[in-house]
Specification:
heterodimer, A: 343 residues, mainly alpha, 17 helices, B: 402 residues, alpha/beta, Alpha-Beta Plaits, 6-stranded mixed beta sheet, 14 helices
């Protein structure tokens, strides 16, 4: 502890301040509230809401009329309500609501994070903010929480609207199980958006210019979507050459390597999760890994899984996506704590 | 935040351990200034290395004992703070900040007492902002001790920040919010209840003359308005200490005057302790009780301004200009008692520099009038900070390289 002389010199005010120091600052709540208000009033919120709204509602509209047109044939079909999300109408080129969401959700995540820290810096508000009695982590935490909140709000509203539209047009009432699956899908979508939000926050810490951070973020998103699906298997092929002449197990080993490589990409992980959650018939999102699995998959009777079973199928993917999000956030957090306040 | 063991002296830097300058002895500049010494030039080299580790045992075995530097030992925090007066609000002892090889702040000793207005003066890049950031706990010191309101800012940043109002260099506000909303946000971050904050914000906006502009978006504010809002912002938490980094920068002269008036009034009304940094010397001289000259990371001189001005030599230099030939001044001026020399001005050929052992402005003016010469320019040099600055700063730079 400090020297006695030092201690006696402390004023009462200082002692009082020390006491209150021990109480949690709660500054992140204030920061999150302010950031959320900023997001909700921002132009980008309105634009994204419109874009994603159109992207979600249009496929839903067409597929629901397709389905209701062939309603008699489909009567008694299990999980019809979920088909609204995962089946695409030919009128709009077979695009599904889910596919649109998968494409656009990263955009939302990046849009609410890319200027998180660097705009405070360039505005000259960062040093003023940090001179207030808040911890430095409160700033990152508050911004992350506000980002997730606005994303959840936006996606939740859109899912509610599209589901409601589907119910009205289809005239069927979804079973609780189906509703639970839609909610699970919504949650996993929010998780996926959080990954991109954390990634964008990381960029906003590392890259001083908001515009360059946005470019890098959107570039990564595009690159992953356009090239990820064929570059990653390519890399896997180079490292584990496909083996068509060896035993069946050799063949399965090389395809497994490809699948593992594909799952480096959060987009693939999210795809897996969505497939399992919205299609109760999905028993496995991975191809078979060995001969034994292949045989047993052939012997299975077609049946529907319950929601918890579906979640179990993609549990590794969910954990991996959470881990990736955490890693991105931790990176942003640590780098921000170590950064000089001054530009 | 980043906690650091409080008592442990940071690791030594090889370069420092090798320097052979004796420790002990010298008074800290700022403290000496307070205790009434006419002029205290901070001597950073003496006493400098006490925070460095003991020298390696065999390192200078070959050097004769008499020439060997006295073995140094680490000073504890207690020892470093032993001379701090009880009403000191801001204290730094051997405060050092290094960025790689670059030393931004070099063994700074500073003592600011309650109710004092201290001006930290120096050119851009002298380490003023780095010092301020260390006082707020926004940057970790490499070495040395900091106490603000009796607390260590790197250990208890929140407690310090609760009591210190800060106007950053180049202050900015959220452009989408009004001035009032910006202040409200600061109040909220300080845990001030809304009912309590509202009248206080009104009062502050009135005080900085932004009553009408308070509900305009901050992005429409002029530079001067932003600066004034920044001062209101620093006062929202009702601080006991105010740290202003370049408060007058980029404001037009009338704005500066207004700002200084405001500050003077606030300091008087609220008995604040103020540390302000500036590189524009003349602007803050009326406001500060004491000033410290900062150059290349070191405090080269500190004390009350008039003592600094009178310190080194008491000669007075007058710039004199008349209608007609400047050389006509020479005989008249030389006849005035106390004048030691008259020389042409370095830059302006219409002027003469009259050097005297005391202020001869009045007798000189009378003498010139008596000789039927019309005085058009008379200015005393050496009293404004620029001259002082010229006096101290080159020394600092030489001392550093030499």
């Amino acid at each position: 502890m400090a020297a006695p002389a030092d201690t006696t010199r402390r004023s009462d005010a200082a002692r009082k301040a020390r006491r209150s120091e021990r109480a949690p600052s709660g500054g992140w709540r204030t920061i999150a509230a302010k950031e959320l208000a900023d997001h909700l009033g921002s132009v980008r919120f309105v634009v994204l809401l419109l874009v994603i709204g159109v992207a979600a509602v249009v496929p839903m509209y067409f597929i629901s009329s397709d389905i209701s047109g062939s309603a008699p044939a489909l009567a008694g079909q299990p999980a019809l309500f979920l088909a609204l999300f995962v089946v695409g109408s030919k009128t709009v080129g077979g695009v599904t609501t889910v596919a649109f969401a998968a494409l656009l959700v990263p955009l939302v995540g990046i849009a609410f994070g890319f200027d998180g820290i660097n705009s405070e810096r360039s505005q000259g508000t960062l040093s003023r903010l940090l001179a207030q009695p808040v911890h430095r982590d409160d700033v990152v935490n508050g911004k992350f929480v506000a980002g997730i909140a606005v994303i959840a709000l936006m996606l939740g509203a859109l899912v509610a609207v599209t589901a409601g539209l589907g119910i009205i047009r289809l005239g069927i009432i979804p079973s609780p199980e189906e509703l639970a699956r839609v909610v699970a899908w919504l949650l996993s979508t929010i998780l996926y958006a959080s990954f991109w939000l954390a990634f964008a926050l990381l960029l906003s810490v590392v890259i001083r210019g908001a515009a360059s951070a946005a470019l890098v973020g959107f570039g990564t998103w595009l690159g992953l979507i356009l090239f990820g699906a064929f570059l990653l298997p390519l890399a896997a092929n180079a490292l584990f050459p496909p083996n068509t002449t060896g035993t069946a197990n050799d063949y399965f080993a090389s395809t497994t390597a490809q699948q593992v490589f594909l799952r480096i990409s959060p987009a693939t992980l999210y795809q897996d999760i969505v497939t399992a959650l919205l299609n109760p018939a999905t028993k496995s999102v991975l191809g078979v890994g060995n001969l034994g699995q292949y045989v047993s998959s052939q012997e299975q009777l077609p049946s529907l899984l319950s929601l918890d079973q579906s979640i179990l199928v993609v549990w590794p993917q969910i954990v991996a996506l959470v881990a990736m999000t955490t890693a991105m956030f931790a990176g942003a957090y640590v780098l921000f704590l170590r950064q000089e306040v001054r530009a | 935040m980043n906690a650091r063991p409080r008592e442990a002296a940071p690791p030594s830097v090889p370069d420092e351990a090798g320097r052979a300058i004796d420790g002990g002895g010298a008074e800290d500049a700022a403290v000496a200034g307070e205790t009434g010494a006419a002029l205290a030039v901070a001597d950073a080299d003496t006493d400098a290395d006490a925070l460095a580790a003991d020298e390696p045992a065999g390192a200078d075995a070959a050097v004769p004992a008499a020439e060997r530097p006295r073995p140094r030992r680490r000073k504890t925090v207690t020892e470093l703070l032993a001379d701090v007066p009880p009403d000191a609000v801001i204290v730094t002892r051997r405060l050092t900040k290094q960025y790689g090889d670059f030393t931004a702040v070099d063994r700074l000793n500073l003592t600011i007492r309650r109710g004092e207005v201290f001006g930290l003066l120096g050119p851009n890049g002298a380490g003023k902002t780095t010092t301020v950031l260390m006082l707020l706990g926004l940057t970790e010191p490499t070495k040395g001790v900091v106490r603000v309101v009796g607390l260590d800012p790197s250990r208890e940043p929140l407690a310090v920040k609760r009591q210190v109002g800060y106007l950053p260099d180049n202050v900015g506000f959220y452009g989408g919010l009004t001035g009032r909303e910006n202040l409200r946000y600061t109040a909220k971050l300080n845990g001030i209840r809304r009912s309590e904050a509202e009248p206080w914000i009104d009062e502050l906006l009135h005080e900085v003359r932004l009553d009408d502009a308070g509900d305009k978006k901050a992005e429409q504010y002029s530079r001067g308005m932003r600066q004034r809002l920044g001062i209101a912002d620093a006062l929202v938490k009702r601080p006991s200490v105010l740290i202003l980094d370049e408060p007058t920068i980029a404001i037009d002269p009338s704005g500066v005057e207004e700002l200084l008036l405001l500050l003077r009034r606030l300091v008087a009304e609220r008995s604040l302790t103020v540390l302000l940094s500036s590189h524009i010397l003349g602007q803050v001289q009326g406001l500060c009780d004491r000033v410290g000259f900062f150059a290349a990371g070191r405090m080269v001189a500190a004390g009350p301004l008039d003592e600094l001005a009178g310190g080194a030599d008491r000669t007075v230099e007058l710039e004199v200009g008349i209608e007609g030939l400047p050389s006509e001044i020479d005989p008249v001026a030389m006849a005035v008692p106390g004048v030691t020399s008259v020389a042409p001005h370095e830059r302006d050929e219409r002027l003469r520099i009259v050097t005297a052992s005391s202020d001869v402005a009045a007798p000189l003016a009378t003498a010139l009038a008596g000789a039927n010469l019309t005085l058009v320019h008379l200015r005393r040099r050496g009293t404004d900070l620029l001259e002082l600055y010229r006096r101290y700063v080159p020394e600092a730079v030489d001392g550093r390289t030499g």
